[in-house]
Amino acid sequence: MTIRPRGRGILAALALVFVSAALMRIASLPGVAAGLASAADSARQCLSETDTAALLDTLRAREAKLEQREGALADRAQALGVAEKGMEERLAALRKAEDDLSKTVTFADTAADSDVARLVAIYENMKPREAAPLFETMAPDFAAGFLARMKPETAAAVMASLDPKFAYSVSVIFAGRNAGAPKN
């Protein structure tokens, strides 16, 4: 006696169902193809020549509008490119002008400082009694600027030769020059 597994009969029945379904589909294919052909024929018959011409005209008009929009967008993009290039050129020119101005200001500051330093050296080489009358003709804040740059010994000798009232006003300016500076 041979023992059979229980599932073999069920498998055979399922295979038979699948094979019969496949055969039915194959048998119905010519009918499906005929149905598709008749649908295509009816679709061709729905559009007459005038309808086709109108549809074609509509599509051409739409294409013309799209080409016009594309042209306008291309013109706009080109104009933006030209404007951007112009702005970049102006910005470069502005940067160059700023650099040139900075160089000029630096040169002027350096020249002014060297001129003042030269005058300070001249006043320092003068005898205090000869320099004092020159300082007394200056405004007190202007004279204080020169005296502040001088060597302390030379500035003290010139201050001693000045009129006491003028020397006092120069001293007040010296004392108050940095009074407003932050202390922290």
Mean pLDDT: 83
Class inferred from helices and paired strands: mainly alpha
- C-alpha Rg, in Å? 52 Å
Could you give the count of β-strands? 0
Number of helices: 6
Sheet with most strands: none
- Residue stretches low in confidence (pLDDT < 50, at least 5 long) are none
Protein name: Magnesium transporter MgtE intracellular domain-containing protein
Domain Magnesium transporter MgtE intracellular: 113-165
InterPro entries: Mg_transptr_MgtE_intracell_dom
Organism: Paenirhodobacter enshiensis
Topology, element by element:
Elements: H1 8-46, H2 49-125, H3 128-137, H4 140-149, H5 152-161, H6 164-176
Domain Magnesium transporter MgtE intracellular: 113-165
Pfam family, one: MgtE_N
Protein name: Magnesium transporter MgtE intracellular domain-containing protein
Structure, explained:
The chain has six helices and no strands. The chain is mostly helical and 184 residues long. Helices cover 86% and strands 0% of the residues. Among the domains are: 48-106; 126-177, no CATH class. It has helices at 8-46, 49-125, 128-137, 140-149, 152-161, 164-176. The model has no long low-confidence stretch (mean pLDDT 83). The longest helix is centred in the middle third of the chain and has 77 residues, at 49-125.
